[in-house]
Design brief:
This protein has a single domain, classed as Rossmann fold (3-Layer(aba) Sandwich). The chain is about 30% helix and about 30% strand. It contains 6 helices and 9 strands, in the order ααβαβαββαβββαββ. The strands form 2 sheets. It has a 7-stranded mixed sheet, sandwiched between helices. Strands 6-7 form a two-stranded antiparallel sheet. Strand 4, helix 5 and strand 5 form a beta-alpha-beta unit.
């Protein structure tokens, strides 16, 4: 399933992320934990920002000077612009997106696993490279020991998910110049993990 097809599926169910019964606490504590590791409050980027802007609004409230969102789904972004009209939003496939700046924090909550398995390593390294020295990366992933990819309709629409597996994820963070700060199976017994990593600070001359 191509990213454009994932975007089309999310467009069909975008209104779910604006309903009153949405669990708006999902991922918030991990984001606050990640923010706690930051050394600067300059730019912040939410990858797969969705249609309600929970993460973006929190990043603004925590004093990040420039907050940006990236998402594949035009319908998600249409809904989000109605809520947060002043935030810079980009409709793009993270596989093709290129950072124009470095960020103090990048979050990718429940979005990285929609990246095709063959391209996930490159995307993770790209996000590491987009961090400023001391910048923090938060993302969730499938907590399996081996790579895996699946196509199903558990959300009511065709949906693709994949994971590199925990050992590969951790080795890529090291390759990308990041140190592991937090790792947690936060929805046990479900194989859902979240990771906080921090780019090594530049060495003093």
């Amino acid at each position: 399933m191509e990213p454009s097809q994932v975007a089309a599926s999310y467009c069909r169910i975008a209104d779910r992320w604006t309903r009153p019964d949405l669990d708006r606490a999902d991922g918030i504590q991990p984001l606050l934990r990640a923010i706690g590791f930051t050394v600067e409050r300059d730019g912040a980027l939410d990858v797969g920002c969705g249609g309600n802007g929970r993460f973006l609004a929190l990043l603004q409230s925590q004093g990040f000077a420039a907050v940006e969102g990236l998402d594949l789904s035009p319908e998600m972004l249409r809904l989000l612009r109605a809520t947060l009209p002043t935030i810079a939003l980009y409709q793009a496939d993270v596989c093709d997106w290129q950072a124009s700046r470095q960020y103090a924090l990048i979050s990718a909550w429940d979005s990285m696993w929609h990246v095709p398995l063959a391209r996930q390593a490159g995307v993770l390294l790209k996000l590491c490279a987009a961090l400023a020295p001391g910048g923090v990366l938060l993302f969730s992933a499938g907590g399996l020991e081996v790579p895996d990819e699946r196509l199903d309709a558990h959300m009511g629409v065709p949906m693709y998910t994949a994971t590199l597996g925990v050992p590969r994820i951790l080795s890529l963070l090291q390759e990308g110049g990041c140190a592991l700060r937090h790792f947690e199976y936060d929805q046990h017994p479900q194989a859902h993990v979240y990771v906080i990593a921090q780019r090594r600070a530049a060495k003093a001359c």
